[in-house]
Write a structure and sequence with these properties.
Helix content is 75%, strand content 0%. With 181 residues, the protein is mainly alpha-helical. It is globular, with a radius of gyration of 16 Å. The chain starts with a helix and ends with a helix.
């Protein structure tokens, strides 16, 4: 197995862990996230990333959960963000579990394909990075999304909110892989 195949397998395993949790929460709560407006979803991503940074800086958790579950949350909310961008938000839950899982798989696959292309071009550079750098890059991406939302999509050179969500997902997957060691 070459280095890229190893990364692909690790990526798929990490996303599989996230997918499993997403499915369980979907069972318990339904697709309640369908009511989230873009700004609320961005704020949810922000809360998760800020908590990771705080835990990295202090090493102390008063609620007993570590960094890893927050990266899982960033991946799942990133995928929810992509779904919301495509479908728009709803006033009520308007999709069932099967459709939600199908959409989850679609965007998880798109994130994997993007990671493969970028990983090839950057030659596994992510492996030499620190998890704290992923956190800072994720927070930067979230700030960019906030600015784009405030500009109501009237950007000049941005890749778009979807590209930032994809990067948040991929940096979070890299963090899960590195935290597994």
């Amino acid at each position: 197995m070459d280095k890229f195949e190893k990364t692909n397998a690790q990526f798929e395993a990490a996303v599989g862990e996230c997918r499993d949790l997403f499915g369980k929460k979907l069972h318990d709560y339904g697709a309640s996230w369908r009511i989230l407006r873009p700004s609320s979803l961005t704020d949810q991503l922000f809360i998760k990333a800020k908590r990771i940074r705080q835990l990295e800086l202090t090493g102390t958790s008063l609620v007993g959960e570590g960094i890893r579950p927050e990266f899982v949350g960033l991946i799942n909310y990133g995928i929810v963000g992509l779904i919301q961008l495509a479908k728009g938000f709803a006033d009520t839950v308007d999709i069932g579990p099967d459709e939600a899982m199908t959409l989850y798989d679609k965007y998880a696959h798109e994130a994997l394909e993007l990671m493969k292309r970028k990983n090839h071009d950057y030659d596994e550079a992510w492996r030499g990075m620190r998890v704290s750098s992923y956190t800072d890059l994720i927070l930067t991406k979230i700030e960019r999304v906030k600015e784009m939302e405030d500009l109501a999509g009237q950007t000049l050179v941005s890749e778009g909110i979807d590209a930032n969500y994809m990067d948040i997902i991929n940096y979070s997957v890299f963090a899960l892989i590195k935290l597994q060691k």
